[in-house]
């Protein structure tokens, strides 16, 4: 598809904060294909300029009120997709001030400038980390939210703001609580490129294809079928499809609405390592390490609400498809550093 063009009549304009990042860029592609005019707003501190392919890029920070005002005045979006956030749990523990400043205060600044511009529809990229250690599995949206790290708290604070802004100011929003985003664009146009990389599947691929980067499974004594932790992996393209549905849904709804995004099926970390080794065609076993503090044994979503209210059905989230698309991206770009423009 030609950058900036869509394959159907425009449904409106969406401004996507953090649209040069992993999930944000996949969502930009999905919105463009669904007929939206897409504007990416990103400071490129952790995103990649060459992931912006479906509309203009505005280099700006969500903490910069003047830059937000200018972008809103120029593009007049009907909807904002908010993905701009730092998302490393371990880093958030070491540097909580970074996470509360960027994720929470940055989101407040965004909401403040949306109000000033008269923009009243938003999709928020949230997280299952807001639940903390689950008291029941699968986890539905009514499960208590009790985060156990600053990253989870910083996102939970934004959800609280959104709920209050909906009641007080008529700013309507959807919060999509992801479980484990994984995989890459099946067309190979965009993918996953974090620095540092902390996600299990790309780390397992590195461990399979690079002898000097062994993959470690943290914890093999959980009460699960093979002793390793169980997670609910959802393909990033399925996440993107959910955002499009949520964007269309909120345009004629009022209030604040949270939705879980997951498959309802769990895969162990050892099963991930086995799938990666099989698809890569290698026999390089993972290293076994101790549990990490705060790691729950099982995290699985109850996503019935998204299925029933949004009509969302994951179509790419079987583990083999997730791993195949991630391996294809890694093999294509393992020796290439994605272009990063200055912030």
UniProtKB/TrEMBL annotation:
Residue ranges occupied by any NAD-dependent epimerase/dehydratase domain in the UniProt entry: 14-262
Cofactor section: NAD(+)
E.C. code: 5.1.3.2
Enzyme class: isomerase
Gene3D superfamilies linked to this entry: NAD(P)-binding Rossmann-like Domain (3.40.50.720), UDP-galactose 4-epimerase, domain 1 (3.90.25.10)
Record's catalysed reaction(s): UDP-alpha-D-glucose = UDP-alpha-D-galactose
Pfam families reported in the protein's UniProt record: Epimerase
UniProt keyword annotations, A-Z: Carbohydrate metabolism, Isomerase, NAD
CDD domains on file: UDP_G4E_1_SDR_e
Organism superkingdom: Bacteria
Pathway of action: Carbohydrate metabolism; galactose metabolism
Stored InterPro entries: Epimerase_deHydtase, NAD(P)-bd_dom_sf, UDP_G4E
Biological process according to GO: galactose catabolic process via UDP-galactose, Leloir pathway
Entry GO MF terms: UDP-glucose 4-epimerase activity
Homology family: Belongs to the NAD(P)-dependent epimerase/dehydratase family.
Subunit structure: Homodimer.
Protein name: UDP-glucose 4-epimerase
